[in-house]
């Protein structure tokens, strides 16, 4: 006596089969890796650090135009911090090494 299985029963058997633990672990790991990649691409977009003041060109802006150091003895070391920002909407690139002009007062 032959035993025939209908197409419906075959499909039901396929859908009720359990997923093996290694396959399930691989699927979950793949989803996590894809999520991390998508977050790295889309979720970490840098925001502009300064408001755009110039359109169509780069523009350098320094937070201090003048630094008063008071009276110093010759040869003493002084440390000054300046914040330099590009407030233009285009990338700022230096063709040469920037220089700082030091003006000595009386």
> Roughly what is the average pLDDT, rounded to an integer?
80
Overall geometry? rod-shaped
The largest pleated sheet is described as: 2 strands, antiparallel
Low-confidence stretches: none
SSE-based structural type: mainly alpha
Could you tell me the radius of gyration in angstroms? 33 Å
Count of DSSP H/I helices: 2
Extended strand count = 2
Strand order in space, largest sheet = 1-2
Give the key terms.
106 residues; mainly alpha; two-stranded antiparallel sheet; 2 helices; 2 strands; 30% helix; rod-shaped
Structural account:
By secondary structure, this protein is mostly helical. It has a domain at 7-42. The protein contains two helices and two strands, in the order H-H-E-E. It has helices at residues 7-16, 21-42, and strands at 60-62, 84-86. Strands 1-2 form a two-stranded antiparallel sheet. The longest helix has 22 residues, at 21-42. It is rod-shaped, with a radius of gyration of 33 Å. The relative contact order is 0.12. The mean pLDDT is 80.
Per-chain topology:
Blueprint: H1 7-16, H2 21-42, E1 60-62, E2 84-86
Antiparallel strand pairs: 1-2
Could you write a compact summary of the structure shown?
By secondary structure, the chain is mainly alpha-helical.
